[in-house]
Amino acid sequence: MTSVKEFRIETEATADSLGSGSFVFTDDYSVFDWGKMPDQIPDKGASLCTMGAFNFELLESEGVPTHYRGVVENGEVVPLAEASRPPWEMAIDLTQVPDLPHEGRDYDYDAYHEAAGENFLVPLEIVFRNRVPVGSSLRRRTEPADHGLDFEAWPDEAVDLAEPIVEFSTKYEEGDRYLAREEADSIAGVADIEELEAVALEVNRIVTEQAESAGLTHEDGKIECLYYSDEIRVADVVGTFDENRFGYEGTQLSKEVLRQYHKRTQPEWVEAVAEAKTRAKREDVADWKSLCAVDPDPLEERVLETARNMYCAGTNAYTGRELFDAPPLSSAIGSVQGL
After folding, report:
1. In three state form, how does the secondary structure of the chain look?
2. Smallest Cα–Cα separation from 47: which of 25, 32, 77, 19?
């Protein structure tokens, strides 16, 4: 089980064949890599499943291979358009995900690939960026001049990039980290790093164009990929408000809203998380969460309702379909601005 969706297996993947299974989306949410938070956001799971299915079908129509097979309704796998209600379950092809052995923070990717053969989930997240919004990790790790931007320091507002940039980060390490291209290439195994980048840029183009058609700005996002039969396919979930950051009329429309709210209202917990991660790195401890002495508090009901309306109204706007009973996006964003 991941932090926000459950994983069901029908048939196991093997060294030379894909398996089958599904994601079952929950209303759980996670910020700052914490995992399941102490409360839930109503209809969030259906929103993510719907938006993910919509994007997978969009990618397939553009010739981008994926692991998506359809959404599940009453035990049947159907296209999103044939679902009678917003779905919670997504049918997918499964690949192999071997254990990643480690000692402290030293991870053995050679062992991962020896077990995986040539049918595996690439142990990377491929990140694409069109803008540098407030809250982007790029602001902590780089300077504006690194990207050809004419600023001495990062401004307080979002900054547009002349061309999208692609970065690679680890997927299965306890404390994920961004990678130099050479290390990312090594971790990818037989999956070609240039092709991974090309797929990410194509996904970014398709999601960006769909967002623009809905009046949204696509700021950044990420994909995961599987490698099977000499082909890279997009895996996990694509283009949702958890994987990507969107904007609407200058306001964030993504999980970043919840991150920033916790920074403002629970700074002691946010600082404790950062300190635990730093200590874990210093002491070569993989499980940073075991070093965190502060737990997050539940959110107020009005905050959960605002988050629910943001996810649902945003999904309606992005897909161009009135799938959820939600206020207009402009009203939902107004509530977000009031947090």
Report:
1. CCCCEEEEEEECCECCECEEEEEEECCCCCCCCCCCCCCCCCCHHHHHHHHHHHHHHHHHHCCCCECEEEEEECCEEECHHHCCCCCCEEEEEECECCCCCEECCEECHHHHHHHHCCEEECCEEEEEEEEECCCCCHHHHCCHHHHCCCCCCCCCCCEEEEEEEEEEEECCCCCCCEECHHHHHHHCCCCCHHHHHHHHHHHHHHHHHHHHHCCCEEEEEEEEEEEECCEEEEECCCCCCCCCEEEECCEEECCHHHHHHHHHHCHHHHHHHHHHHHHHHHHCCCCHHHHCCCCCCCCCHHHHHHHHHHHHHHHHHHHCCCCCCCCCHHHHHHHHHCC
2. 25
Here the CATH number for the domain that contains residue 27 is 3.30.470.20
Separation CA 286–CA 189 (nearest Å):
23
d(CA 261, CA 274): 16
Q: Which tens digit of pLDDT belongs to each residue from 207-264?
A: 999 999 999 999 999 999 999 999 999 999 999 999 999 999 889 899 989 999 999 9
Domain count, the chain: 1
Residue type, 323: L
Pair of tokens at residue 242: 């958890």
* pLDDT at residue 135 greater than cutoff 80: no
Domain region containing 89: 5-337
